[in-house]
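Can you make up a polypeptide sequence alongside its tokenized fold?
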Amino acid sequence: MFLAGVLWLLQAFTPYLSLLYLGRLGSCLAFNAVGPLAPGLISELVEPSVRGSLVAVVEAVVALGQLGVYCLADALPWRLTTALCAAPFFLVFVLAFAVPESPYWLVRKGRPDAAATSLKRLRGPVKDSSAELDEITASIKERPQSTLKDQLKQLFVPQNFRPVLFLASVFALRELGGQYVVFSYTVYLFREAGVAMDAYACTILVGVVRLACTVLGSLLLDRVGRRPMLLATSVVCGLAELVGGAFLLGQFPGASWVPLAAVLVFVSSYGLGLSPVPWVLLGELLPTAVRSVGTSICVFNFALTIFAVSYTFPPLVEFAGVGTALVVFAGFHAALSAVVWAFLPETRGKSLSDLEDAFTSRPKEADGAAAGEGERADKDKDTNV
């Protein structure tokens, strides 16, 4: 985090374009290295009943930061705005020393006493955490997370490969749905749409709406569930882009407000579920045996897709127009909705141990039930004989 702050300062004050590019590249790499740690750490540190809400709070902080940058960019020179972006990284660097170590990591390292102390600190002195510690220990003994080579071998086990493939697909389809374009090209989109309001004022409004809806989503996530929120918000985002693109293609007179409304609907739905839920699932669905390498694969896929979208959007707009681009983005949201509907299990309120077999064709519970039915059938057969 300290290095990320230094890289932002480099972007703000360097007189050389090459160093500006280097700072930009380094800050992106730092984000992709550090950003995914929060969902996984929260999933291991907090109780299942509040796990989704706390991960969603991280996205709310991201939305707050984005709103702050929108306001700063409208009021201050870009160099000063860029320099101020470094401050949160230095603050997080200091606060990170107060975060307890993950009990899962301590158990993996053969330090059960330290894991018990960390868990007691996290749950409070009143609550008995011995049963939870036993569950963590049993889960790690059953599926140990060892060397990178062993994790790569475990990655080819179907119950480990399926959640990695699913989450990588979710992140890729979400980014192909154009969220990076909506939030990074906001001023450009509003100007192209001919919105009557000032483009910078519309951009700040987008930041306010995203922040409000992300906070609301964090309150609802552990009540409604991951599956319905991700499915519903993906559908709404796709419909908003489809409507906005259709109106831009049709160039209907007196309807310049429609693209603004479509963007605001997209942003609100994205903040409610499409933004936080994939990060929540990243901390919940990846099995212990491949959690590190699986997270790396998903985040790399996420970053690579953002690069592809940001690189291809300008030529796509030049060739086909903004309206066509929005319709294409809507198609990817339709694909995302289909993937979520077909493959995503509900994870709300379940422990990480329970979710280890979420993508197994025959989970332990089903195998146990089948075994029980087999034993009863054998007993009935013996009785009849």
Observations:
- DSSP finds 20 helices and no strands in the chain.
